Each structure stands twice: as structure tokens, then as C-alpha cells.
Amino acid sequence: MLFGSSAAVCGAVVALTIFGRAAGSEIGAVHSSDVVNAACGDTIVGAASMYNPFKPGKEEGGPSTASGERYDRSAWAAAIKTSLRRKFGGVEFGARPKYALVEAAGKKVIVKINDVGPLRPGRIIDLNERTMSYFDPSLQLGVINDVKVSPLAGDYWSPGPVS
């Protein structure tokens, strides 16, 4: 129950921070400081890899994500480690996707967490192709170490790079 009330308070603070700054002006890109201030809960640090259920591999899931959406390689999306599902407020069939700030190699991106998965040991998040190519344009690394993932409160985020 403590987590639920903390998330609600954090969400209210985030909404006031972001929408308060936007009052009287056009809403533009989300700035890094707004997103960092919106991060709720503990930051998780670990490795990230890429997944695509349409590529051959015995460990890939099906075309539907845990939220019920179809996998979209062109979206800014990711699958979180199954044991971290509660930390992100669920990620269940039919539920609204959750959002997270992912940081690595000096870059930041907001992703929609719409799937969970049995990731390999040490990995905390699987990025879809678009998100992985943001951090690794050649898609040759396979794994990115020292990735920071922070849950974001609320469901009003626009996934994509953070300036």
C-alpha cells in the first residue's frame, strides 16, 4: 500500500511540475530535468538487450506483448524483467502500458513498458529494435551494460528521446 500512495503523490508532483511549466505556452519537447524529476522509485541498473519476436530464436516471445498490444519494432518500447513487473505498477494483459526513463551511453529515452520476459541473467530490460538502435545504431553490440531504468509515474508520457 505504501508503494501505491507514494506513486500517487509522485504522479501528482510530476503533473504539477510538467503541466505547470507548460501553462500559457505550447507544450514542446520534454526536457531532461522534467523527466528526471518524474522518476519514481528506485533506479535499476543492469544490462539491456534487444528482442524481436519476428526473428528466429527459441527464447523470443510471440507477436503479442504482455499488455495485449502487438510488438511494434518502430515504437519506443521495451520488455521489463518479469520479476520487476510490480516495480513498474503491473504490466498485464489489457492494462495500460507503463513508462520508464532508460539511460545509457550519455543518452536518455522514454520507453513504453508493454511487455515482460524471461531475460537472460544480468539483463533487466529488453529493448525493441528502434530503442536499441538509438543506443547502438549499428545493432552490433547485442548487449548494453550499465543501463539505468527508472519507472515514471503517470500515463501521459510521449515515448522517445529526451533532450
Automatic annotation (TrEMBL):
Q: Where is the RlpA-like protein double-psi beta-barrel domain?
A: 45-138
Any single Pfam family the record assigns to this protein: DPBB_1
Enumerate the UniProt keywords alphabetically: Lipoprotein
Under the heading InterPro entries, the entry gives: RlpA-like_DPBB, RlpA-like_sf
* Protein name per UniProt: Rare lipoprotein A
Which species is this UniProt entry from?
Bradyrhizobium macuxiense
The organism's taxonomy opens as:
Bacteria, Pseudomonadati, Pseudomonadota, Alphaproteobacteria, Hyphomicrobiales
